[in-house]
Specification:
Length: about 400
């Protein structure tokens, strides 16, 4: 892989790809973040959309975004069918709706062989996730899951460090993703994003564990390069009256026998978006915090603790390739998602030459499915008083 600073090299000629959006209309949280990351990547243009399940709202949002009136739709299914029939059909589509509507929209897009980008958690439950794996396998087209944190340069460096053996054999992993925004019952006070996240019909089988625990889990598997094989979980509903967990503790066993702990909480008062992963090998440990994303701490036993800095020449090629600005000019959340959008653009631009079995540089159906297998096992474990439950392995060599 070559190091190319595609976000800021705007004089380089590249294919302009068109994208359809499902969700992400006026007032939504993450839709505009996707669009900002797409713009930053310089590779995408929103050309169509079903921006809301309400047609009038979808039309209003589409107009505001400058989408042609005949390409604004009332549902993901309609978007897939009508776009597939056009000679200038969209190159790809992104699904950024509440979790329970991901599956139908993704399946409709894949049936039409439209490369699909799905937000996390990929589906409402593991049954839907299994069906989506089959749909991706039949479509033979790129499928991405936007686990934003995999796009950070220093997360990529962490992965390369583990891969290189710098830490020695991995023994212990500690990951936590803490937020405070659900510490009060805001779902009853008009906060729409909170309301659907705590409603099993719209969020799926878990609350905090599905919403942010899946990010933490993806980070563990991404950085260590290993699967979690078993979990023992205890999920809590700290704020009274909730149907889904707002806090969860999960113990984990990794494929090489390493032990891990995952804590996901949306009631951790006093913190904002505190995602942190620590990996301990026989020789030393690494420590990355999302709120200080431009550095990575590396502590090898008997040596001074090193603070590695984003975009420095001593970093690995994958890490430098995801860093857009020179060291000292920080980049972060939007740039991480843009890095993922940039790699998805490469895969989509490859067209029929796309090989689904090769690691493409963005989270795929595998990450999406693993996230749902994790949530499913942890929820079952919690219901069974914290019993150890096996997390099924990913068995598809035909898909990355
Ligand atoms: N990758 C990340 O870091 C990250 C961060 C935040 C949210 N998310 C994910 O993004 C998704 C959306 O979250 P949000 O916070 O933006 O939600 P939101 O409630 O703010 O926005 C959802 C949008 O989808 C629209 N919508 C709802 N049902 C629809 C349907 N059937 N068809 C078309 N449009 C529909 C709504 O009108 C709204 O515009 C969730 O799956 C969430 O987990 C991911």
């Amino acid at each position: 892989m070559t190091v190319s600073k595609t976000l800021i090299d705007d004089t380089v000629e590249r294919s302009a790809l068109t994208l359809g959006m499902v969700g992400g209309g006026h007032g939504s949280f993450f839709g505009p973040v996707h669009r900002a990351a797409m713009r930053l990547s310089g590779r995408w243009r929103v050309a169509a959309g079903a921006f809301s399940s309400d047609r009038d709202r979808s039309i209003a949002s589409g107009r505001a975004l400058g989408v042609a009136p005949d390409r604004i739709y009332g549902s993901g299914e309609e978007l897939a069918d009508r776009e597939a029939a056009r000679p200038d059909r969209i190159d790809a589509a992104v699904v950024v709706t509440p979790n329970s509507s991901h599956f139908e929209a993704c399946r409709a897009l894949l049936r039409r062989r439209i490369p699909t980008i799905c937000d996390k958690p990929m589906t409402a439950d593991l049954v839907e996730a299994n069906a989506l794996v089959d749909a991706v396998a039949s479509a033979r087209t790129p499928f991405a899951v936007t686990y934003t944190y995999a796009g950070y340069p220093m997360v990529r460096q962490a992965r390369e460090l583990v891969r290189s053996g710098a830490l020695g054999p991995i023994r212990l992993v500690h990951v936590e993703y803490l937020q405070e925004w659900l510490a009060e019952p805001v779902e009853k006070q008009g906060n729409n994003q909170a309301a659907w996240r705590l409603d099993p019909k719209r969020a799926g089988l878990s609350g905090a564990l599905g919403d942010i625990g899946t990010h933490a889990f993806q980070l563990v598997e991404y950085v260590t390069g290993m699967e979690v094989t078993e979990v023992a979980g205890e999920l809590h509903r700290i704020v009274e009256g909730r149907q889904l967990d707002d806090n969860g503790f999960v113990r984990m066993r990794l494929a090489n026998g390493a032990n891990g702990l995952l804590w996901a909480s949306q009631v951790a008062s006093g913190v904002d978006n505190a995602l942190r992963v620590r990996v301990f090998g026989q020789k030393g440990n690494l420590d990355w915090r999302q709120e200080e994303p431009n550095t990575l701490s590396l502590a090898i036993s008997g040596e001074p603790v090193a603070t590695l800095v984003r975009a420095k020449p001593y970093l690995s090629v994958p890490s430098r390739a995801a860093a857009w600005l020179p060291a000292g000019a920080p980049d972060g959340y939007l740039e991480a998602l843009a890095a993922i959008y940039s790699r998805i653009a490469d895969a989509v631009a490859a067209g029929p030459g796309y090989d689904a079995s090769r690691e493409p540089g963005f989270p795929t159906i595998r990450d999406g499915w693993r996230g749902m297998a994790f949530v499913d096992a942890a929820v079952r474990s919690s219901r069974q008083s914290g019993e150890w439950i096996r997390v099924p392995a990913w068995g598809r060599s035909d898909l990355a």
